[in-house]
């Protein structure tokens, strides 16, 4: 009995030893798995890092960085040495003008004992955005590092040894812009481009003297010429372009060379630059914003060239394909049919445009001429201006800085800038008063003195006028441009009636024009919030902001018996109207009074009567000042049209006018021309 019990104890004592041994074995196995997992993880990271470096080099077109990532047997596997691979990439991608390269969907995967990687590449060429290319490559391990086992299909997926990439480009012709009579406002002209061939300049003092002479002759700086010569692509016998010329010079300094090129040209120059705008070379930033652009070519930078760029630019055509060593086409990567840009015809009359610009005499202002029955814009000008040909074909830094630093702001399109319209707006206020029957045109109102306020609640604020006459009725108020009469009549009709009448016009509306502008506004807030602001608005000041184009649309009611005709600039645009803005009877009364503004000797536009043509007109002066009883900046306005034919309407602005100067005193020549050609 005793022996049996001893044996049982001995058996039980062996169990912990067996279990303990198993624990040791499991621990050792677990450590091996952990190490294997660690190694695997490190290998994955290493392979991913190599692929990341490779694809980033491709994306940034830093092809020289590819060389160190390639396996030693690259020559054997692909037929190219590592340095030849770099050159191949550079040749192909520069040859097709590849830009905006973007790598996506990068992945690595281990198959058997090797890693494969995949990625996609998107790029833009002069033909536009190429379809995404999908790549597959292999990594090989050399010592402790992974390398790319390069093949030609990592340039383009279908490429094989000795294949080439063929590229043909058929550039689209940019559409031209013409006026209503097919005169060109933006054209593709054959012009002379001045440049230099470095080897023809000589060296040392000879080179310096030649550069000085070239700079002086063509209004360039010596620094600009030197910078052009120092560009990375320049070779001794290359032609280095400097500037495109409007006309061929009589003499060409030694060292300079002329070549004929096709370039964008603007015949009206400064007279239409704000309207037509100009073009510039497409940049990498442009391609980032719009992948549909071609890497080469031009894009609109301002004006209609920018607003209508897509229609004008068209689409370059051509083909990029993979060809064999024998130039046999194997695979087409990109093919686009050429589509020339559209020629766009405007309603503008070049002759009227030039006259309207010349009238401003380089002073700050804007002129707008319309056919009020159709809304067609005959002229849209802004002054001072800039030379669009220089902006397109090579402006010196000095010339650009002169524009940029000019306190008269020549880059601003004043025809699209909102202004308080001044007394020309009284015609609209009067029309609303007549329609609402709050204004009796025959009623005479006693007004004494040159300033007036409703009551003491206005504090030290007074409405002022220029002519001290009494009594005053609607006709005399328009003839003498009486602010006090119009302020009183606006208060009489009240804000609700006045705003209701104004809302029939185009306040707050976006106009269907390819010109950037802010909608016309009545006031900063939805209500005037004071009687003073209500009164001031009635005679065209306050917080009114209406640009000259918008004014021409609003004043069209007086040429169309109360119908407002929206402005249009493109000949193929339909005319849009708004009926019943003012009643015909009200319009007839106001037009009769506006004729008196010209015919009566004390009328503010009486000087125009010397033209001997039928005119209805309203002048205006909007004063900008921060304090009562002080002299502020005065903007002069004129609205004029032929009341018998309504063949044209002229709206003019002269900003910050000088003493004894006004839009009226400048407008004789253009009004005579309009009456002769657009009766």
Automatic annotation (TrEMBL):
Domain Penicillin-binding protein transpeptidase stretches: 366-667
Coiled coil: none
Assigned keywords, A-Z: Membrane, Transmembrane, Transmembrane helix
GO cellular component: plasma membrane
Membrane-spanning parts: 16-38
Localization in the cell: Cell membrane
Membrane topology field: Single-pass membrane protein
Penicillin-binding protein dimerisation domain segment(s): 171-329
Highest taxon of the lineage: Bacteria
Cross-referenced InterPro entries: Beta-lactam/transpept (IPR050515), Beta-lactam/transpept-like (IPR012338), MecA_N (IPR007887), NTF2-like_dom_sf (IPR032710), PBP_dimer (IPR005311), PBP_dimer_sf (IPR036138), PCN-bd_Tpept (IPR001460)
A Pfam family recorded for this sequence: MecA_N
A molecular-function term among this protein's GO annotations: peptidoglycan L,D-transpeptidase activity
Alphabetical GO biological process terms: cell wall organization; response to antibiotic
Domain NTF2-like N-terminal transpeptidase: 49-163
Protein family membership: Belongs to the transpeptidase family.
Name of this chain's protein: Penicillin-binding protein transpeptidase
Taxonomic source organism: Enterococcus phoeniculicola ATCC BAA-412
């Amino acid at each position: 009995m005793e022996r049996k019990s001893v044996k049982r104890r001995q058996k039980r004592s062996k169990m912990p030893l067996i279990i303990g041994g198993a624990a040791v074995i499991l621990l050792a196995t677990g450590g091996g798995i952990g190490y294997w997992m660690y190694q695997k993880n490190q290998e994955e990271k290493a392979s991913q890092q190599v692929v990341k470096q490779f694809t980033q080099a491709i994306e940034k077109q830093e092809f020289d960085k590819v060389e160190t990532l390639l396996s030693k047997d690259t020559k054997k596997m692909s037929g190219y040495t590592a340095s030849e691979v770099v050159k191949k990439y550079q040749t192909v991608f520069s040859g097709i003008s590849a830009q905006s390269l973007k790598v996506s969907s990068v992945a690595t995967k281990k198959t058997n004992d090797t890693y494969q990687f995949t990625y996609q590449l998107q790029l833009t060429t002069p033909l536009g955005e190429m379809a995404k290319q999908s790549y597959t490559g292999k990594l090989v391990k050399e010592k402790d590092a992974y390398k790319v086992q390069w093949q030609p299909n990592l340039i383009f997926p279908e490429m094989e040894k000795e294949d080439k990439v063929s590229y043909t480009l058929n550039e689209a012709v940019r559409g031209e812009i013409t006026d209503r009579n097919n005169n060109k406002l933006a054209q593709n002209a054959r012009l002379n481009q001045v440049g230099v061939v470095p080897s023809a300049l000589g060296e040392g003092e000879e080179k310096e003297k030649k550069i000085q002479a070239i700079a002086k002759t063509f209004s360039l700086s010596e620094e600009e010429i030197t910078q052009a010569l120092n560009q990375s692509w320049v070779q001794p016998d290359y032609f280095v372009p400097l500037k495109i010329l409007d006309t061929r010079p009589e003499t060409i300094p030694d060292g300079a060379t002329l070549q004929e090129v096709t370039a964008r040209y603007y015949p009206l120059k400064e007279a239409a630059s704000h309207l037509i705008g100009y073009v510039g070379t497409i940049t990498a930033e442009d391609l980032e914003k719009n992948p549909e652009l071609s890497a080469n070519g031009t894009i609109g930078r301002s004006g209609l060239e920018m607003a209508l760029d897509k229609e004008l630019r068209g689409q370059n055509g051509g083909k990029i394909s993979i060809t064999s060593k024998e130039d046999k086409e194997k695979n087409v990567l990109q093919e686009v049919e050429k589509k020339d840009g559209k020629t766009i015809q405007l309603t503008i009359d070049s002759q009227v445009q030039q006259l309207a610009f010349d009238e401003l005499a380089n002073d700050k202002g804007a002129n707008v001429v319309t056919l009020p029955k159709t809304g067609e814009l005959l002229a849209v000008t802004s002054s001072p201006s800039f030379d669009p040909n220089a902006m397109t074909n090579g402006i010196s830094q000095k010339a650009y800085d002169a524009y940029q630093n000019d306190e008269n702001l020549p880059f601003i399109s004043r025809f699209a800038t909102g202004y308080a319209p001044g007394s020309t707006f009284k015609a609209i206020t009067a029309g609303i008063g007549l329609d609402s029957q709050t204004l009796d045109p025959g009623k005479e109102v006693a007004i004494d003195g040159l300033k007036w306020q409703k009551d003491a609640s206005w504090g030290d604020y007074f409405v002022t006028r220029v002519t001290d006459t009494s009594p005053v009725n609607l006709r005399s108020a328009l003839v003498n441009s009486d602010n006090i009469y119009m302020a009183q009549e606006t208060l009489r009709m009240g804000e609700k009636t006045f705003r209701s009448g104004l809302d029939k016009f185009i306040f707050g509306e976006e106009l269907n024009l390819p010109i950037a502008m802010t909608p016309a506004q009545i006031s900063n807030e939805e209500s005037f919030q004071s009687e003073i602001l209500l009164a001031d608005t009635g005679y065209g000041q306050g917080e009114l902001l209406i640009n000259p184009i918008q004014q021409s649309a609003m004043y069209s009611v007086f040429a169309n018996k109360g119908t407002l005709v929206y402005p249009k600039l493109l000949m193929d645009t339909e005319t849009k109207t708004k009926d019943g803005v003012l009643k015909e009877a009200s319009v007839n009364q106001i037009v009769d009074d506006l004729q008196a503004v010209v015919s009566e000797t004390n009328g503010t536009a009486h000087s125009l009567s010397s033209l001997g043509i039928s005119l209805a007109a309203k002048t205006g002066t909007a004063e900008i000042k921060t304090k009562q009883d002080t002299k502020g900046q005065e903007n002069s306005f004129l609205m004029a049209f032929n009341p018998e034919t309504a063949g044209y309407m002229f709206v003019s602005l002269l900003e910050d006018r000088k003493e004894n100067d006004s839009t009226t005193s400048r407008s004789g020549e253009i009004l005579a021309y309009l009456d002769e050609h657009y009766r």
